[in-house]
Specification:
The complex is a heterodimer of chains A (294) and B (398). Chain A is α/β, with parallel strands linked by helices and 294 residues long. Chain A folds into 2 domains: 113 residues, NAD(P)-binding Rossmann-like Domain (Rossmann fold, 3-Layer(aba) Sandwich); 150 residues, Rossmann fold (3-Layer(aba) Sandwich). Helices cover 32% and strands 22% of the residues of chain A. Chain A has 9 helices and 14 strands. In chain A, helix 5 links the parallel strand 10 and strand 11. Chain B has 398 residues and is of the alpha+beta class. Chain B has 3 domains: 162 residues, D-amino Acid Aminotransferase, Chain A, domain 1 (2-Layer Sandwich); 77 residues, 2-Layer Sandwich (Dna Ligase, domain 1), CATH 3.30.1490.20; 155 residues, Succinyl-CoA synthetase domains (Rossmann fold), CATH 3.40.50.261. In chain B, the strands form 5 sheets. In chain B, strands 7, 8, 9, 10, 11 and 12 form a 6-stranded antiparallel β-sheet that branches. A 4-stranded antiparallel β-sheet of chain B has the order 1-6-2-3, with helices on one face. In chain B, helix 5 packs across helix 6 and helix 8 runs antiparallel to helix 10. In chain B, 45% of the residues are buried. The chains are: A alpha/beta (294), B alpha+beta (398). Chains A and B meet through helix 4 and helix 5 of A and helix 9 of B.
Chain lengths: 294, 398
């Protein structure tokens, strides 16, 4: 079944006529994703991806005409929260926001609107999700994946690629790989994704890749310790050498007042039964040690 | 971006919050004349506070009282130029010393877990909130602003009563709402008043009255929102920004200087942190965090190289690129170009995988860069190169 994206995904790309939007819409389609529509206000009636995908002025119209159920947003930061809310209001169920650099307070309002509409937002500042062999929504390179039964969830982009590549090289395929984003205010948390993996009958093991800042890893660990006790699970935490009080690239990656340290996260994860790797390359071996035979 | 106390107070005043008067002085003479004005205005004493973007100024001796212009000169002279946790004090804030009846703590912060604005208040003011949270967590009142409507009156009243500010209800409600308004008006991550204080004031006719005021202010702005508040960029304190930080910011690079010898150039924040961690794990010390970002072109790579080499402690460089949006061959060309321009020879270990890695490989080979296939191998090679360089340097001196 996989989670969030799959064969049922009917993808709409907001910002499809832009450079990044067009490039990654094409890459998502090349991977096998069903790309049904694009939206760029003012460019309704045109088409994208060599004339094969209709472009609409509004998300509501695109949904009406094509039955899109998932949106991928490449709109620049100033307009991205509005794009998220437009998608939610139009009835899109799953919204991925790739855009980086959105003011945090804008996302508080957007997350609230998404919640009221019963939709799900992944991101912002995330690389998207891939269910290998089924669909890819976002910017994760398709070539690093292999089909399988390990669920991967991460806050980071390139670090996720590193971990997934290590898994694939070791012959461990993935059910779904999800990047939840490096911003302080995001729509879907580690805990949310673990709950989805727990309910997915095609996910048999978990890889969690966290980093310093906040307490989302600790919260997710506590839940997993109780509800995923028998599931093989491994983790990696980036930022063991990060100094306090500095934002390490991601807006959300900051240790403040002694909270959000790598040590605190590693401790919580180990207490919950995760095997925590010292390097992403150790993840496949640790997963085997944890009893995963996939 | 962190604001100095004086700038933070200006923003609070602009939002209508009660803040006693102050002046900023850059010299002993300015501190003296400010003191003369406040004493002439009826103050018994002035308080002189170091203006640095770091907590614990009081403990470090950066906050002192003065009862006369002469004393103010002496005190300001001692504080100006003082080193507080590595920051040199270049200016002081001068204001009338308050007759404090009671101190409180009140702050509006971004709450990541609840995805909202959290108001935190405590009747234990004047001490660090982390200490209160550790010792007596029940002494902290927590309440969320509505995600769309902001802090509603009833919530502000609840906060005020819970903090024991019933006698100053009107002022407390206005201040609590004002913190959230300030946060939203300037896109702040944090607006903290510590202490929020009831002070005793003597009117011209000799009658005393009590008033709730913001005695200190700390504001941190959301860097992602600075573009839409052009005036706020002017509040960036040039005294507190190192030249390399400025160059990095202007080049669109995320750069954080550390103490080690191995310069790191990586794409992506999570991978950049991981690269530092693995350098440390392999027995080395990272000299910096540097994220060149997604889709970095050759010029950006060259700028990153200049930043790394500007640190004289750097004696080896580790380049780690996992191409997604970023194309490996672009980075390889940037590295070759940067090396042609560089002023000193430093061993470099380059790992490029992902998008266009195949195109990058022959370029790296031809340029004779030392390469690595895995992340662990790259870290080990960089640490070995750095140790060799350190040994050679030591040998050369001996």
């Amino acid at each position: 079944m996989s989670i969030l994206v799959g064969r049922d995904t009917r993808l709409l790309v907001q910002g499809i006529t832009g450079r990044e939007g067009g490039f990654h819409a094409q890459a998502s389609r090349d991977y096998g994703t069903n790309v049904v529509a694009g939206v760029t206000p003012g460019k309704g009636g045109q088409s994208a991806l060599d004339g094969t995908v209709p472009v609409f002025d509004t998300v509501a119209e695109a949904v009406r005409e094509t039955g899109a159920n998932t949106s991928l947003i490449f709109v620049p930061a100033a307009g991205a929260p509005d794009a998220v809310m437009e998608a939610a209001e139009a009835g899109i169920a799953t919204i991925f926001c790739i855009t980086e650099g959105i003011p945090a307070l804008d996302m508080i309002a957007a997350v609230e609107v998404v919640r009221e509409r019963g939709a799900r937002l992944i991101g912002p500042n995330c690389p998207g999700a891939t269910s290998p062999g089924r669909a890819k929504v976002g910017i994760i390179p398709g070539s690093i994946h292999r089909e399988g039964r390990v669920g991967v969830v991460s806050r980071s982009g390139t670090l996720t690629y590193e971990a997934v590549q290590a898994m694939t090289d070791a012959g461990l395929g993935q059910s779904t790989c999800v990047g939840i984003g490096g911003d302080p205010i995001i729509g879907t948390t580690f805990l949310d994704v673990l709950q989805l993996f727990a309910a997915d009958d095609e996910t048999d093991a978990i890889v969690l890749i966290g980093e310093i800042g906040g307490a989302a890893e600790e919260t997710a660990a506590a839940w997993a310790g109780e509800h995923l006790a028998d599931v093989p699970k491994v983790a990696f935490i980036a930022g063991r050498t990060a100094p306090e009080g500095k934002r390490m690239g991601h807006a959300g990656a900051i240790i403040s007042g002694g909270a959000g340290t790598a040590a605190s996260k590693v401790e919580a994860l180990e207490a919950a039964g995760f095997r925590v790797a010292g390097s992403p390359t150790e993840l496949p071996g640790l997963l085997r040690d944890a009893g995963y035979r996939g | 971006m962190k604001l100095q106390e004086a700038d933070a107070k200006s923003l609070l005043v602009a939002q209508g919050l009660p803040v006693p008067p102050w002046e900023v002085a850059h010299s002993v003479a300015e501190a003296r004349s400010a003191t003369e004005r406040f004493l002439a205005g009826g103050a018994d004493k002035v308080v002189i506070k170091a203006q640095v973007l770091i907590g614990g100024r009081g403990k470090a001796g950066g906050v002192k009282l003065a009862g006369s212009p002469d004393e103010a000169e002496q005190v300001a002279g001692a504080i100006l130029g003082m080193d507080i946790k590595g920051m040199t004090v270049r200016k002081v804030l001068v204001g009338p010393a308050a007759d404090i009846v009671k101190e409180f703590y009140l702050a509006a912060v971004l709450d990541r877990a609840e995805r909202g604005i959290l108001l935190m208040g405590s009747a234990e003011g004047g001490v660090e909130i982390e200490q209160v949270a550790a010792a007596t967590p029940e002494a902290i009142v927590r309440l969320h602003a509505h995600p769309l409507l902001g802090l509603q009156d009833f919530a502000a009243r609840e906060m005020a009563f819970a903090m024991g500010l019933g006698a100053h209800l009107k002022a407390a409600v206005a201040i609590a709402k004002g913190l959230v308004t300030t946060m939203r008006a300037y896109d702040a991550d944090l607006v903290e008043i510590n202490p929020l204080a009831i002070i005793r004031e003597t009117a011209a006719d000799g009658a005393t009255q009590e008033r709730l005021v913001c005695l200190d202010a700390k504001i941190t702005l959301d860097d992602s929102a600075l573009a839409r508040h052009p005036g706020l960029e002017d509040l960036r304190d040039p005294d507190e920004e190192a030249p390399e930080d400025k160059e990095a910011r202007e080049a669109g690079l995320t750069f954080i200087k550390l103490d080690g010898t191995i310069g790191c150039m990586v794409n992506g924040a999570g991978l950049a942190m991981t690269t530092m961690d693995l350098v440390k794990r392999a027995g080395g010390e990272p000299a910096n965090f540097l994220d060149i970002g997604g889709g970095a072109r050759a010029e950006k790579v060259a700028a990153a190289m200049r930043l790394i080499l500007a640190d004289p402690k750097v004696n080896a460089i580790l380049v780690n690129i996992f191409g997604g949006i970023t194309r490996g061959d672009e980075v390889a060309r940037g590295l070759i170009e940067a090396r042609a321009q560089q002023t000193r020879e430093v061993p470099m270990v380059v790992r490029i995988v992902g998008t266009n890695a195949a195109e990058a490989a022959p370029l790296l080979l031809e340029a004779r860069f030392e390469t690595a296939a895995s992340l662990d191998e790259a870290a080990a090679k960089a640490v070995a190169a750095s140790k060799r360089a350190t040994a050679e340097a030591t040998g050369a001196i001996a």
